[in-house]
From TrEMBL:
Annotated TM spans: 149-166, 173-192
Subcellular localization(s) per the UniProt record: Cell membrane
Entry's EC annotation: 2.7.13.3
Coiled coil: none
Record protein name field: histidine kinase
Domain Histidine kinase: 422-530
UniProt-listed InterPro entries: 2C_sensor_his_kinase, HATPase_C_sf, HATPase_dom, His_kinase_dom, sCache_3, Sensor-like_sf, Sig_transdc_His_kin-like_C, Sig_transdc_His_kin_SpoOB
GO molecular function: ATP binding; phosphorelay sensor kinase activity
Nucleotide-binding recorded as keyword: yes
Pfam families linked: HATPase_c, sCache_3_2, SPOB_a
Catalyzed chemical reaction(s): ATP + protein L-histidine = ADP + protein N-phospho-L-histidine
This protein's UniProt keywords: ATP-binding, Cell membrane, Kinase, Membrane, Nucleotide-binding, Phosphoprotein, Transferase, Transmembrane, Transmembrane helix, Two-component regulatory system
Length: 537
């Protein structure tokens, strides 16, 4: 197979051919302009010289007497040679020559057929075939003292003489054309190199294939992908994103802004663009979406954002299973670590023969564990919530934090699966925040987290209190912002935003204030009526 030409070869060849064409046009036009200019200059010179000769006294005298003297012929010849004219002819009113460079033609009639207008009083430039050849002529009438026309003067430059003048200037035109052509070729090579560097050495066929492959890959994945400029303008989106966001197949992405697709969440998604956020939920287009936001980098510089999204119901089952596995693994890890320490302590007491202390230690541990189990079994009838609280109990205990479930707590079974899922997420985030707040606290208060659950005829209520540093008044207005966090790390700052989002979906509310423990207190109220279907929130 014949190998296709490279892009830079096409570019260099094209620019070179274009330069050749332009140079040919430039050379032809320059030659025409030069030829016309020299011809006009020769005619003007001939006409001016004819005027000078026509006003000479000796020429007027010669025309009046009908013959020319040798002195006149010599003077006219001197003028002709000095002016480099090919001929100066003086004729009478009958067009018979009385002065001519060739003495054999004196007395003969003037040729060319262009002298009559001069005998009628006109001064002009003409081009005609004379006895010496084709020439450019300046013709002027000769007047006597009374202003009567007594003859005419014709000064001419032969066409071959004018052509010789033009030919002398051709090398200049050729050098100029070659210079322009060389510059065009150099520019073509420079452009070819620049284009090759900008395209990373890829050829047009390769670029076209990459473009097709990119579209095929983006439209194959089952995840919506949206590429944005830094100002929120849509740069590209795949077919799955069109389906999720209910966009028309004919809609042009580059005409849209993020605010057109996700009006309620555009400000959040465009804030703090250097921060990566993964796996958060948003309610948009009458459905819950699980989204991630990653800075879009080109040559190590942020060039926008890349959003990925999937409907939450597609991964709901997997996420629930994964959450349960993670909770179970976390509980096992905590229990293993905790009981390993206790076994070491118990073994040491036995080696020291402190049998009474060992029995007392076993009783304390059994009593605390049994108290929590008894409270959960007797008052918290929802197994999922009970499992969540038990896992958080072990997590707090590992951090040497007292995790207490209020004895007044009570909760019956939750029949609505969607509401139960939201409650687990809300309670989990709030309890994790409370444990972390106590763990980071710089005060000397008892390290405690207290959870209270209750239900009324119309609401499910639970409180989370801690003995941390609390919430300052300046944080009241920013605590639910998606990028606000009192902790460090790229994944922080989304928890309270998700809590608020879930509460809105459940038509619930949240209140926060100072706790009697010295930290913060969060109170959640969730209506017990069934959760509305997706799309009616």
């Amino acid at each position: 197979m014949r190998r296709p030409k490279r892009l830079e070869t096409w570019l260099i060849s094209g620019v070179t051919c274009l330069s050749l064409l332009l140079c040919a046009l430039f050379g032809g036009i320059s030659y025409q302009i030069l030829s016309r200019s020299i011809t006009e200059q020769s005619g003007a010179k001939a006409l001016g010289l004819a005027h000078a000769v026509a006003t000479r006294t000796d020429v007027i005298t010669a025309l009046q007497t009908g013959h020319s003297s040798p002195q006149l012929l010599a003077a006219i010849e001197g003028i002709r040679l000095a002016s480099k004219a090919d001929f100066i002819v003086v004729g009478d009113t009958h067009k018979y020559r009385i002065v001519h460079p060739d003495s054999d033609k004196i007395g003969k009639k003037m040729e060319g057929g262009d002298s009559q207008a001069a005998l009628e009083g006109e001064s002009y430039i003409s081009e005609a075939q004379g006895s010496l050849g084709r020439s450019i002529r300046g013709k002027v009438p000769v007047l006597d003292e009374q202003g009567q026309i007594i003859g005419l003067v014709s000064v001419g430059f032969l066409s071959q003489s004018v052509g010789a003048l033009i030919d002398k200037r051709i090398p200049e035109i050729i050098m100029t054309v070659l210079g322009v052509l060389l510059m065009g070729v150099l520019v073509a090579f420079w452009m070819g190199r620049q284009v090759r560097e900008m395209l990373f050495g890829l050829q047009p066929a390769e670029i076209g294939r990459l473009f097709v492959e990119q579209d095929a890959i983006l439209n194959t994945v089952r995840m919506g992908v949206v590429a944005l400029d830094a100002d929120g303008r849509i740069r590209k989106l795949n077919q799955r994103a069109r389906e999720i966001l209910a966009l028309s197949p004919t809609c042009q992405p580059n005409t849209l802004m993020l605010s057109d697709l996700l009006p309620q969440h555009a400000d959040f998604l465009l804030t703090n663009q250097n921060k990566t956020i993964r796996g958060f939920e948003l309610f948009a287009n009458d459905q819950w979406l699980v989204m991630s936001r990653v800075p879009f980098q080109v040559r190590d510089q942020n060039d926008g954002l890349l959003l990925t999204m999937r409907p939450a119901d597609e991964i709901e089952r997997l996420s629930q299973q994964l959450a349960k596995v993670q909770e179970f693994a976390e509980m096992l890890r905590v229990q293993t670590h905790d009981y390993s320490n206790k076994l070491h302590t118990l073994g040491a007491l036995l080696q020291l023969k402190a049998y009474d202390k060992a029995v007392e230690f076993i009783g304390q541990e059994s009593q605390g564990w049994q108290a929590q189990i008894h409270l959960l079994l007797s008052q918290i009838h929802e197994p999922t919530i009970a499992g969540l609280l038990l896992g958080k109990y072990h997590k707090a205990k590992e951090l040497n934090i007292e995790f207490q479930i209020s004895p007044d707590s009570q909760l019956s079974d939750v029949q609505d699966a969607i509401m139960l899922e939201r409650m687990v997420s809300i309670m989990g985030n709030l309890i994790d925040n409370a444990i972390e707040a106590v763990h980071r606290a710089n005060n000397h208060k008892p390290r405690r987290v207290v959870v209270t659950l209750d239900e009324t005829a119309s609401n499910l209520i639970f409180d989370v209190e801690d003995s941390g540093d609390g919430i300052s008044k300046t944080e009241y207005s920013t605590i639910f912002d998606p990028d606000y966090s009192s902790k460090q790390g790229a994944q922080h700052g989304v928890g309270m935003y998700i809590v608020n989002t879930y509460l809105c979906a459940c038509h619930g509310s949240l209140e926060f204030a100072d706790s009697d423990l010295g930290g913060a207190r969060f109170s959640v109220y969730i209506p017990t009526k069934p959760l509305p279907e997706v799309g009616t929130v």
